[in-house]
Amino acid sequence: MIYLVSYDLNADSGNYAVVKETIKSLGDVKQCLESVWLVSTDLHCADIFKSINEVLNKGDRCFVCRMYDKEYCGVTLSEYKVWEWLAAKSVLCA
To answer: Is the model's pTM score more than 0.85?
Structure first.
């Protein structure tokens, strides 16, 4: 399953490295925007959120949702190679 994970950290949080490392520990991940990641894992949505929420500080926010559909579009930095990652997972939009 592939999940979209997005977060907004409080400017005073300084917690970016910890949050990123936590996300990376959840499975096969691909960053697609500054604070938006795709996570391929067998974990459930609530488990992903719980793991990330444990390292968030007061005022930080996080959103996790499962990507059910194969139809999505967007613009990302080419260095993120998001479309190649999705194609390798056979979920690139037709």
So the answer is: no
